[in-house]
Amino acid sequence: MRGFDLTPEQERLVDEARRFAEERVVPAAAGLEPQGAFCGEVLREMGERGYLGLPVPAEHGGGGDLVSFLLAVEEVARGWAAPGLAAGVSAMVALALGQHGTPAQKERYLPRMAKGEILGCFALTEPGAGSDAAALSATATLCSAPGGDGYVIEGRKLFSTNAGEAGVYLVFAKTDPAAPGIKGISAFLVDAGTLGLEFGLPSDKWGMRGSVDREVFLNGCRVPASNRLGEEGQGFRIALSALDTGRLAVAAQAVGVAQASLDAAVAFVKERQQFGAPLARLQAVQFAAADIACGVDAARLLLHRAARMAARGERCSAEISMAKLFATEQAMTAASKAVQLHGGRGVTNAYPVGRYFRDAKVMEIYEGTSEIQRLVIAREVLG
Length: 383
Ligand SMILES: Cc1cc2nc3c(=O)[nH]c(=O)nc-3n(C[C@H](O)[C@H](O)[C@H](O)COP(=O)(O)OP(=O)(O)OC[C@H]3O[C@@H](n4cnc5c(N)ncnc54)[C@H](O)[C@@H]3O)c2cc1C
Hints:
10 helices, Butyryl-CoA Dehydrogenase, subunit A, domain 3, four-stranded mixed beta sheet, 10 strands, Butyryl-CoA Dehydrogenase, subunit A, domain 2, binds flavin-adenine dinucleotide, four-stranded antiparallel beta sheet, 3 domains
């Protein structure tokens, strides 16, 4: 990564994560992705290497370094995007806990998240509330009980990444269904194993096949009042700030996939001979490689600008949306051009470019579609 002003520790992290991706992640992707199997083993190793702990605040055993986390996600995603998605969603929960948790909540979850012992799951989307997430209809009703007050949560969540694998679920539900818009939404921490927390089958996806998402059913799920994250009515604000972190991680996954597409295209066109010379000798091919390279670097620059602003605690939702939008669209463009440069071989499973293409498409959708990112940016531009 030239020109990015990384610290010596970050340079070492990038080198190490790149080796890890080449030696462990790429073979895991080749073996597991075609079967749609979960990337759990890669995540376990990411935990052991400390990557999952990087976004967790240092006082709770983590690295407290968002930029380093994103560097690690980019390198891992260069090998396989799916573990990047799982790690990014878990980081959203860890950062929300770090920002809004009580001391007891932080102590309970963050040290285990820092070690990669438990993953987080972010359960916002519902069948009737996708891009319009504030339209959610799950409810949390406060009930008094001799052992202490608690909430009973009822609802159904959709597309919850890491569901069934996570140790803690950040669930958004209405504590005041009569309140307009986002006002009645609150956030809750629900432990794996809580009675009434049930899951559907994993989504049968054609992209991001190594990441798992399931429907989450909250069937009279009872949690103590001390499991509410933040105040009643603050839930949507917490969701939006968590989504900012998540979108940075998606941009990092996208830069990784765009870079992998460039790497694959370059290797192929140097090798493949047509008309008596390697394809790389053709100027049309050289221009395609130059365009992909520009897109990768521009996406990385937008990501690192936004990441550094976020790490400094500056207001930067529009910059984050620009990074997410541009990086995911560049990943899609780069993967599409890489497939094209591979010719017929590009659409066979003998080469990874088809996986990059499928994964990049999904990135344009989760954690806010490209259209929703444009809405966020336009709001900033137009006021
Ligand atoms: C692999 C994967 C992982 C996911 N992980 C999670 C997770 O961990 N937690 C979670 O809560 N959710 C998760 N999601 C859900 C994801 O965030 C939603 O799918 C996404 O926000 C879009 O919602 P939707 O699918 O309901 O599409 P819809 O909202 O129905 O949108 C359909 C189309 O309409 C467009 N559209 C909608 N509104 C507007 C508008 N106002 N202006 C212009 N265009 C608009 C959209 O951009 C899209 O093109 C995941 C989804 C996927 C596919």
